[in-house]
Amino acid sequence: QSALTQPASVSGSPGQSITISCTGTSSDVGGYNYVSWFQQHPGKAPKLMIYDVGERPSGVPDRFSGSKSGNTASLTISGLQAEDEADYYCCSYAGTYTWVFGGGTKLTVL
Amino acid sequence: EVQLLESGGGLVQPGGSLRLSCAASGFTFSSYATSWVRQAPGKGLEWVSVISGTGGSTYYADSVKGRFTISRDNSKNALYLQVNSLRAEDTAVYYCAKAGSTGWSKGNAFDIWGQGTMVTVSS
């Protein structure tokens, strides 16, 4: 149950697009189409942004999109806005009803 | 409105125990698997444990297996986490989270989260 690998930080200017990667193994990310992404603002609970690799819950802007290739999943945020500044975590099903999270990525909107 | 509200955290000495609770409202609690996820201060998220909607199946992260016990009382719309033999590394905010659909919902296991309850293990 090793944590998935995410970049520690990414940044972008308002209106730009950024992508956060999430690398695992064939036992988690690569083995299942069960990747989700969470946004967490300081002092707040995480919020689901993407599930099942690329599905958006109702209420999440379509600026947020998810994808996967092999053992790496990605979250893309287009048209960056100031309120997107937060920590982002990926999560993958890892078999036998266990889940593993990434270490988190701090997004800075310049 | 779907809500989850954790309680029961606090300061406990190493080797001590606590019982965390999570009160659910706004949905048919017994239909959804529910998990505990924790976050150490300044650190990332760590999945801890999950329980099926009926309570008949439970699973744990290796880091807590044998020390933590997840349970639920569907008549009270409540989820619990009994945490024993606590260590300093168990210090964290503990969140409960429900699955996004009925059944196990492997790809959407953490749809709605509570606000968390802080557990501090220190002498």
How many DSSP E strands of chain A?
9
Biggest beta sheet summary of chain B = 7 strands, mixed
Helix content of chain B: under 10%
Of all chain pairs, the largest interface belongs to: A-B, 29 and 26 residues
Give the mean pLDDT of chain A: 97
Estimated structural class of chain A: mainly beta
Alpha plus pi helix count of chain B: 0
Question: Rough shape of chain A?
Answer: globular
Distance between the termini of chain B: 40 Å
- Please give the oligomerization state of what you see: heterodimer
Total of helices of chain A:
0
Largest beta-sheet details of chain A: 6 strands, mixed
Q: Report the portion of residues of chain A in β strands.
A: 35-45%
Could you list the spans of chain B in which at least 5 consecutive residues all have pLDDT below 50?
none
CA radius of gyration of chain B: 13 Å
Radius of gyration of chain A, taken over Cα atoms and rounded to an integer in Å: 13 Å
Parts with pLDDT < 50 across at least 5 consecutive residues of chain A = none
Q: Which structural category do the helix and sheet elements of chain B fall into?
A: mainly beta
